[in-house]
Each structure stands twice: as structure tokens, then as C-alpha cells.
Amino acid sequence: MPTPAALPNYRPHAKYVLMLGAIAAVPAISTDIYLPSLPTVAAELGASDSAVQLTMSGMLIGGAVGQLVYGPLTDRFGRKAPLLVGLALHVIISILCAFAPNVSVLIGLRVLQGFCNAAASIVAISVIRDRFTGAPAARLLSQLMLVIGVAPLFAPTIGGFIASIWD
User: Fold this and answer.
1) Nearest of 76, 110, 107, 77 to residue 93 by alpha carbon
2) Residues 67, 26: contact at Cβ < 8 Å?
3) CA-based nearest residue to 35, from 17, 15, 56
4) How far apart are the first and last CA of the chain?
5) Going from the N-terminus, what domains does the chain have, and what CATH number goes with each?
6) Which of these, 144, 28, 119, lies nearest to 65 by C-alpha position?
7) Euclidean distance between CA atoms 123 and 24, whole angstroms
8) What is the pTM of this model?
9) Alpha-carbon span 71 to 16, nearest angstrom
10) How do residues 1-45 score in pLDDT, each as one tens digit?
């Protein structure tokens, strides 16, 4: 059976683009949904603003290192297993972040969270690279970037809403 890229008029469904976009947007959502809570986190943990801001930097550093690790892992073990492990660990670490006793532990957990959610963006791009080439790949990547670009617009609003409900 020919690959989708080999079919001349194959166009991925909107569900396909949204699914890949949702997977790829996990790191952006994880970063931006947390922003409205920074002052509250600083107050509750008795930490300085700069220490709490390190949780953001830590997540970005973890994500950068995670991409270097997950890339070869997805090439070696396929796309599904590293994605599921990365997302499962991301969820577990997110729950642990909610119960962090101090800012140092929170910084460490956020680094791990960034490392684990790097699997999402790596797998989304890899799936496109695996199934498409040329103009169809470029078109799908641009649609994917559009979905990823929308995530930071809504995530802080959702984060503020969640913070207002659970204080």
C-alpha cells in the first residue's frame, strides 16, 4: 500500500492536524498555563519572584535536553512508546508539582516536566517527517505551527481560571 505522501491528492483530515497539533502544543501549554500562578506560587512557597521564575527556565532547559534524548529514542523504539512514556511521566510530574514542599523541589520537578514533555513535540514533527515529503509536508508543518501558535493565546486565560477556582 502506498504511503499517504505517494498519493497525489491526499490531504490529511482536520482531525489529524488537530491531533498532531495538540500533541505538539503540550510543552507550550504547560509553560503558559502556569504563568498566571507565578505570584501565588511565590507567596505560598515563601520564595522570591526570581526563584519562582527559575521554574520556567528549568522547564525550558529540560525541554531542550529532552529533545536531544527523545529524538534518538523515537528513531530506535518507534513513535508510540516514547510518546506515551513521556506524556505519562509529564502527567505524574505535574501532579507532584502541585504538592512540591518548596521552590527547590518545584524547580527540579519542572526541569523533569520539560524533559518529559519534549517527547510530544519530537513525536509530532517525526510523524510528519515519516509520512510526508515535499509540499504536503511543508503544508502540514505550517498547519501544525498554526495550532501550536494558538496554544499560548488561550493557555494563560485557562491557567488564570484554574487558579481562581483552586486558589
Assistant:
1) 110
2) no
3) 56
4) 54
5) 14-155 (1.20.1250.20)
6) 119
7) 8
8) 0.84
9) 21
10) 445 555 455 567 778 888 888 898 898 888 888 888 899 999 999
Q: Identify the DSSP state of 47.
A: -
**At CA 136, angle to CA 116 and CA 79, rounded to 5?**
25
Burial of 69-102, coded b for 16+ CB within 10 Å and e otherwise, reads ebbebbeeeebeebbeebbebbeebbeebeebee
Cα–Cα dist 151/167, whole Å: 23
Q: Tell me which residue has cell 509553560.
A: 31
Report residue 167 CA to chain centroid gap.
24
Cell numbers found for residue 83 = 510518546
Question: Do residues 79 and 126 make contact, with C-beta atoms less than 8 angstroms apart?
Answer: yes
Q: What are phi and psi of 13, to 5 degrees?
A: -65, 160
